[in-house]
Amino acid sequence: MHPFEQHIRNVPDFPKAAIMFKDITPLLQEKFEEVVAAMGEGINWNEIDAVVGVESRGFILGAAMAIHFKKGFIAVRKKGKLPPPTIAESYALEYGTDTLEMIVNDKPARVVVVDDVLATGGTLKAVMNLCAKNKYDVKALSLLINLTFLNKFKEEGLPVHSVLNY
Questions:
Q1: pLDDT (tens digit, 9 = 90+) per residue, 27-79?
Q2: 63 vs 61: CA distance, rounded Å
Q3: How far is residue 70's CA from residue 116's CA, in Å, rounded to a whole number?
């Protein structure tokens, strides 16, 4: 068992029945700096210009990683939260559908995409599509938790760095 796991709280039936929510709040309260460092391990930071953080817990982790590794930060938000011009991508997730947006960019950059949990992969695929449309070259994907039993990212050939795997 990874030492971080003792600080993660399992919340059954949240946000819907049959979902076991991994609450990382206690982990961030106790081990935030260590989590940020662990999420950045194995990434070639010399080939990264910015960190893309996915709303909402990806903001927390991504912004901290951007500061820790001295990179810029790019926000991906839910529809209607960013000022125009934006591009949008709709996707399915484990308990419904949603739309993410990113501010339109015309300057190419190399990025690492950061989020807290990779479940079915819908959110991550949507973010990668937004990055591709926006001249961002995704060099790395960094997740705190990868629920490997729900997604096939390894089989799809996409490199995923995750600290905890279930």
A1: 999 999 999 999 999 999 999 999 999 999 999 999 999 999 999 999 999 99
A2: 6
A3: 20
- For 32-165, the fitting CATH number among 1.10.1610.10, 3.40.50.150, 3.50.50.60, 3.40.50.2020 is 3.40.50.2020
48: left (phi over 0), alpha (psi -120 to 50) or beta: beta
**pLDDT tens, 8-38?**
999 999 988 888 899 999 999 999 999 999 9
End-to-end distance of the chain based on CA atoms, in angstroms? 11
How wide is the angle at C-alpha 41 spanned by C-alphas 158 and 101, nearest 5°?
Answer: 50
Reported pTM: 0.93
55 labelled catalytic? no
Residues in the chain: 166
- Is 94 annotated in the active site? yes
CA 43/CA 159 separation, integer angstroms: 11
Q: Which of 30, 33, 34, 57 is catalytic?
A: 57
Which residue ranges make up each domain of the chain?
A: 32-165
How many CB atoms are located within 10 Å of the residue 73 CB? Answer: 16
Question: Quick one: pLDDT band at residue 92, thresholds 50, 70, 90?
Answer: confident
